[in-house]
């Protein structure tokens, strides 16, 4: 029994460490994002509070705690308070299952908090729960703009969650397990999954951009369109909690992409020839991969304009979903009738699929951008009887 | 595969770890909200606590605000439920796929085709057309 208690206490310690680590990363992510956006727009970004602006996150955090916490008269008090807690809770919990190194590499302990056999399913379930936070927050605000933003965001998030769930089916078929550890072990032996599932990866990447509400899919908080969406009536720490949830989701999405498609905490096996055991160095590789994806998130934010809502839904339902199914069927057919070619043949097939995605999304874009309101000359035609 | 990596692993413990993680994560949120409630100023006034309506006095209001919304959201949610169930059926099939070849392949194809019929029907009905 004392053994059990010790195990649980260690888990508790690890959970607290993960949470604090994520919160620190979130704080510095905001700074890095602002500085990087600044660099991309040829301006310095925050550089006054502390050296290189390093104390800016601390200043922001202190400010948001000491701000007045307003609750609109018409709001549902309980749900209004619970919503940000749900959002941050689910976001933080999702990260705990990511393995950050080989077993026992964290001072003799395992570098993960929990290791479920159904790791991916638990992750998808937690992302679904994240939708509750956003929708309940918008609904309980007792105001129209948050309600609209919440409706839009929940529709968007569930649509892309579908694409997310379907785009990893091919990967699951190849590996045959839903645990992150099995995936990492498989990739260490057979090469990174990106090679064999490039189409699946592209679909997963796009879906995760929509899942974490980042540009070009950040309609839920489209500040130029509907104020700030579900965030409109939130102030002080509750607003900060929602922001935190968004950034933590971003970090988790990066870690998941690194684990599923980029070999997880294992480094490139080729380097082992140069320095023996370099691919097993704990934490470094995972952090590098996460940092790469986080940079990608910021880069895309500085590059792409936001989609219109109908474009977004069309993209999700009419392109992402069928292509994810096609990817699944393609992988299934390959595994069932594989000829002489090894897995590399699947890689070629997948690349062809990726190319098809690029061409199709360009083709379909022309269709999408057709305005629904007819231009005047068209209306004249209709009046004259010809359509 | 991962059992070999850690032979002493007990599945129930992992679920306990999951619950611990969940509680710690929710706890952080609760602590933050409480800290802000204790430390922040409390000077609400009627105008300050009004809902934001671009400067107008909100006419109707309250939870849900009682307005009508496009049925599209409802349809999308229904479609999500259907396709999510499809995904839920697919996961076990995907995990056990390599052991069930080639039977599982035709099984999966049949299932996907049945769903595609529904999908095409939805497309033709223009449920997925917005605006």
Please sum up the structure shown.
The complex is a heterodimer of chains A (387) and B (131). Chain A is an all-alpha fold and 387 residues long.
Architecture blueprint of SSEs:
The complex is a heterodimer of chains A (387) and B (131).
Chain A (H helix, E strand, L loop, with lengths): L1 H39 L15 H11 L10 H19 L23 H22 L3 H24 L1 H7 L4 H11 L7 H14 L24 H26 L22 H20 L5 H28 L6 H26 L7 H9 L3
Chain B lengths: L1 H4 L5 H29 L32 H24 L1 H4 L2 H22 L7
Can you put this structure into words, describing what you see?
The complex is a heterodimer of chains A (387) and B (131). Chain A has 387 residues and is mostly helical. Helices cover 66% and strands 0% of the residues of chain A. Chain A is built from 13 helices and no strands. The radius of gyration of chain A is 23 Å and the shape is globular. The termini of chain A are far apart. Chain B is flat and about 70 Å long. Chain B is mostly helical and 131 residues long. At the A-B interface, helix 1, helix 2, helix 3, helix 4 and helix 5 of A face helix 2, helix 3, helix 4 and helix 5 of B. Chain B: This is NADH-quinone oxidoreductase subunit.
């Amino acid at each position: 029994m004392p053994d059990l208690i010790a195990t649980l206490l260690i888990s508790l310690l690890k959970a607290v460490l993960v949470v604090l680590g994520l919160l620190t990363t979130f704080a510095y992510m905001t700074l890095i994002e602002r500085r990087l956006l600044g660099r991309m727009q040829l301006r310095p970004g925050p550089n006054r509070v502390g050296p290189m602006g390093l104390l800016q996150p601390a200043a922001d955090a202190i400010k948001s705690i000491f701000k007045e916490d307003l609750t609109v008269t018409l709001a549902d008090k309980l749900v209004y308070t619970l919503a940000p807690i749900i959002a941050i809770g689910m976001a933080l919990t999702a990260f705990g299952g990511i393995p950050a190194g080989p077993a026992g590499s964290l001072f003799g302990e395992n570098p993960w908090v929990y290791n479920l056999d159904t790791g991916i399913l638990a992750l998808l379930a937690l992302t679904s729960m994240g939708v509750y936070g956003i929708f309940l927050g918008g609904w309980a605000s007792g105001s129209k703009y948050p309600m609209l933003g919440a409706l839009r965001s929940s529709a968007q998030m569930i649509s892309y969650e579908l694409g997310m769930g379907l785009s990893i089916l091919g990967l699951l078929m190849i590996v045959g397990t839903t645990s992150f550890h099995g995936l990492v072990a498989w990739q260490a032996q057979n090469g990174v999954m990106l090679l064999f599932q490039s189409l699946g990866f592209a679909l997963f990447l796009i879906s995760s951009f929509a899942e974490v509400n980042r540009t070009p899919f950040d309609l839920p908080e489209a500040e130029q369109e509907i104020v700030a969406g579900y965030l409109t009536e939130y102030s002080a720490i509750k607003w900060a909690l929602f922001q935190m949830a968004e950034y933590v989701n971003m970090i988790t999405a990066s870690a998941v992409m690194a684990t599923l498609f980029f070999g997880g905490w294992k480094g490139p096996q080729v380097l082992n020839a140069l320095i023996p055991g370099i691919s097993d160095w704990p934490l470094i590789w995972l952090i590098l991969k996460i940092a790469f994806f986080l940079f990608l998130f910021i880069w895309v934010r500085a590059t792409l304009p936001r989609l219109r809502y109908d474009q977004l839904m069309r993209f999700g339902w009419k392109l992402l979903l069928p292509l994810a199914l096609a990817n699944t069927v393609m992988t299934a057919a390959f595994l069932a009738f594989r000829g002489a070619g090894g897995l590399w043949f699947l890689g070629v097939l997948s690349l062809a699929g990726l190319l098809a995605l690029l061409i199709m999304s360009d083709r379909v874009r022309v269709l999408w951008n057709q305005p629904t309101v007819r231009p005047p000359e068209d209306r004249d035609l209709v009046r004259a009887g010809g359509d | 595969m991962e059992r070999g990596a850690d032979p002493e692993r007990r599945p129930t413990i992992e679920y306990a770890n999951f619950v611990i993680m969940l509680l710690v994560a929710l706890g952080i949120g609760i602590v933050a909200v409480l800290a802000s409630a204790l430390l922040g100023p409390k000077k609400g006034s009627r105008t300050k606590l009004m809902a934001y309506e671009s400067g107008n006095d909100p006419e109707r209001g309250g939870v849900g605000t009682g307005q009508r919304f496009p049925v599209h959201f409802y349809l999308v949610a229904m479609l999500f439920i259907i396709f999510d169930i499809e995904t839920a059926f697919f996961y076990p099939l995907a995990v056990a796929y390599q052991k069930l070849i080639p039977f599982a392949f035709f099984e999966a194809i049949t299932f996907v085709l049945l769903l595609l019929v529904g999908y095409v029907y939805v497309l033709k009905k223009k449920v997925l057309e917005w605006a």
